[in-house]
Amino acid sequence: AVPGSTVELGCSARGDPAPQVQWHKEHGDLPWGRHEVDREHTLRLYAVTPADAGAYVCTAQSQLGTAAATTVLHV
């Protein structure tokens, strides 16, 4: 990603019952005041900086189990 740009990271999770979906950064916190997660579980990072680079994990959890996927952001 280019510094200062907006990045979208998608996460698709379906099930019955519908799973709870959460995003976190593997080593650190999501950028304070510069991120949001929409209803489709897409994580948006605004005005990215080199400090935002790293692995981001999407975790889907329901009473039937847990699944996780990781993506790496390079800035």
TrEMBL record:
Stretches for region Disordered: 1-22
One term of GO molecular function: cell-cell adhesion mediator activity
Compartments, as annotated in UniProt: Cell membrane
Keywords, sorted A to Z: Cell membrane, Disulfide bond, Glycoprotein, Immunoglobulin domain, Membrane, Repeat
Primary subcellular site in the record, as a coarse category: membrane
InterPro entries: Ig-like_dom, Ig-like_dom_sf, Ig-like_fold, Ig_I-set, Ig_sub, Ig_sub2
GO biological processes: axon guidance; dendrite self-avoidance; homophilic cell adhesion via plasma membrane adhesion molecules
SUPFAM superfamilies: Immunoglobulin
Domain Ig-like: 1-75
Any Gene Ontology CC annotation: axon
Protein name, entry field: ROBO1 protein
Species whose genome carries this gene: Setophaga kirtlandii (Kirtland's warbler)
